[in-house]
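Handout, tutorial session.
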Amino acid sequence: MHALRNPAHAYRRVDFDARVAGADPRELVLVCYDQLCSALALALHANTRSDNQAKSEALTRALAAIAALQLGIDPAAQMAAVLGQLYAGARRTLLDSVINFDPGAVARLSQDMAEIAQALRGNE
């Protein structure tokens, strides 16, 4: 029902489902990064408009993307501990921003995550 009221949400959901359906594990990680970066951009934009509902929804989406990234860490991987620390720090930044939104911290997190996603894409 909600998707029928907001075409942008419906389109985003269809796009997300299509990307996930045929993705390999590496592509799923990129989908999570894309969702995270998009959500952070939306949160920053919503903040400039003083739209607390949109900001809250965007932060919730960002936290879901971080949770998916955390769950996807292979404990046997060489970078597992580093990734765990990175995602835990990102999660803390987001949770802190739920209570007291810090646009600077969210913008830095967005930039960091975009750089990581770009580096992952550079290996394609």
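The second record follows below. Compare its token runs with those of the first.
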Amino acid sequence: MEKRVQFSIFSTNLSTRNLGAIIRESFISDLKNGNKVIFDLSNIESISNSFADECFGKLLISYQVNDLKSITSFANTTPFIKDTILFALNIRLKDLVC
């Protein structure tokens, strides 16, 4: 089964750790149940580093990178949003390795 998380229903500007945690909690059970999750970022204007870390970076605590890649995907990201998410994931990876 597949779940699409439409981020724009929460806000077009994703900027707090609290919101990141709320959204992560909305799909974490789907990942645990083996469902693929598509992160749809259409109509999102901005995303903060703290939101990206809370929503996406913290997934690396529970999942290996390759496993996470196989059960998630991103749709409708802008270059800025993609870079912000990648930055958060890379920082989290460095923290987990050190």
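Points raised in discussion: The CA atoms of residues 71 and 95 lie 22 Å apart.
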